[in-house]
Amino acid sequence: MGRFIFKRTLLSIIILFFVMFIVYFLIHSLPTSYIETVARQLATRPGNMKSVEQWMADLNATYGLSDNVFTGYFVWLGKAFKGDFGDSWYYSIPVVEEFKKVIWNSFYLGIAALLIEVLVAIPLGVISARKQYSLTDYSVTVTALIGISLPTFFVATLLKLVFSIKLNWFDISGMVSRNYISMTDTQQFFDKAWHFVLPIITLTVVGIGGLMRYTRTNMLEVLNSDYIRTARAKGLSERKVINRHAFRNTLIPIVTILGGSLPGLFAGALITETLFAIEGIGFASYHAMVAGDIPFTMFYLSFMSILTLLGNFISDILYAVVDPRVRIN
User: How far is CA 312 from CA 21, 117, 210, 250, in A?
Assistant: First the structure.
């Protein structure tokens, strides 16, 4: 196991090296008008002592954009490993500082949606498999397919139309109410939690269908296994067959899927956060990219690359841990 982890870690580092190079190469290939636009904005700020040309030279030197692509990449990579991604052109503060301000909002949103998905999708998937071809099975299957088919923006818009405009239960967007400052700490907590309800429902509806179908498929495969027939032949009750034998083995592939989704808790939900004006990492990155904020864009793409590799790494490790039949050479 130790040797396998070492190999996977080394392979992930190599892949990350080349992925970050692709990110840098794409940014390096952008027209220089981006740099010039930002340089002109910085030059017109109050108290500025530099000309447009000086700002362009500083920006190009900071991010290695004035060098050839290989030299510039190692300049940027060296600073990135130190946690220095430069200053955000849109937010006018260091990129990492802006990241720290918004990341926890994305995490709270993601963890709440994931918990609801697990608590609802897995039991429904198991029930659907146990009652195959019944009305319950068809109902769960149709619900799952609807959830998979509906795009995020449609679900979010529908929820806002019904609960914000028609019923007036929630604000149409934003994280807090207008009188948030005058509230007590407890009231502020529940006020912010109330504004997170619709975004959480949106993420749950969009994501629950896939996990539900995955659970049902794996449960059906396990229920048709020989050892399940043997357990029933021995006279075990259906409850013991399901809970002690079938469900435990169904969880093996599900655990790997959930393990891979853990890094995604920090990735943010760009569409959902933007539609509901939740100031998370997805919301921040969207506005930064629209404004041509190269430093924040490079950071966000690198951050997503790391999360993706980490998710695959966790899935591989968990599969080897939860399934003793797996032997890694």
Answer: 20, 20, 18, 20
